[in-house]
Design a protein that fits this description.
Length: 241
């Protein structure tokens, strides 16, 4: 027969075993938190690849932009249309626009007297308003006019408009030039007015982007307006060379 001491040891060992069996295993550690990758969309960019330094002319009370084509008379309007067609003849080199040079030369030849009269009237206006330094001011004005039409981001839509206007220009009689120019000028300006609206929308989108994500990291921007160059010899027809 087992001794009393041995029985006690067996009972203690059995109790410990039963207690160990009743205990539950500790829960597994919680999974590591999933780190969500932060995605920052690209900052908005200017339309037509324009510079971020582009200055949009202010919108006037009459709904027009404050550009060099504002507040001008019929002869100046005709001259500004002529300048636009001259820029197009010199700048629109794609085969789609190959007729522009011939159209421009025909327009100048058909209306030389009317265009000369417009030019002389503009010069006399500068003489009255500026005095002895009128030539410098007149040349600066012509340079600004050519620079306006030469805004490179809009080259394609401007050329599209110019080639349509040029086809009407060559069949317009001198007596109808002022009416033609009055209609043609806003048509030639349409790519610019559309661009200004698109650029202002880009500015609003960029501001909203900055509020949410901070300032974008950008490279150095190019000036929006080319440095002034000497005025072109605008009395000579374009040669296309």
């Amino acid at each position: 027969m087992p001794r009393l001491k041995d029985l006690r040891l067996l009972l203690v060992a059995g109790g410990l075993a039963t207690l160990a069996a009743c205990q539950t295993a500790p829960p597994p550690p919680p999974p590591a938190p999933v780190v969500q990758q932060q995605y920052t969309p690209r900052a908005p960019t200017p339309p037509f690849g324009a510079s971020t330094l582009t200055i949009v002319p202010m919108l006037r009370a009459d709904g027009l932009r404050e550009t060099i084509n504002r507040d001008i008379g019929p002869l100046e309007t005709l001259w500004h249309v002529r300048a636009a067609l001259n820029v197009a003849a010199l700048s629109c080199t794609d085969p789609l626009y190959e007729r522009l040079v011939d159209d421009y030369n025909a327009f100048i030849s058909n209306n030389s007297a009317s265009l000369s009269n417009a030019n002389n009237a503009i010069i006399r206006k500068f003489q009255r308003e500026t005095g002895a330094g009128y030539k410098t001011e007149h040349d600066r004005h012509q340079t600004q006019l050519y620079n306006y039409w030469s805004f490179s981001p809009l080259r394609r839509p401007f050329c599209d408009q110019a080639v349509q206007i040029s086809q009407r220009a060559i069949v317009t009689k001198s007596a109808d030039l002022n009416a033609f120019a009055e209609q043609a000028l806003p048509e030639l300006e349409k790519p610019f007015t559309d661009f200004y609206l698109a650029y202002e929308e880009y500015q609003r989108d960029l501001q909203a982007w900055r509020v949410q994500y901070g300032d974008p990291v950008t490279g150095s921007a190019q000036p929006a307006v080319a440095a002034e160059q000497p005025a072109l010899d605008y009395e000579q027809p374009a040669t296309g060379e």
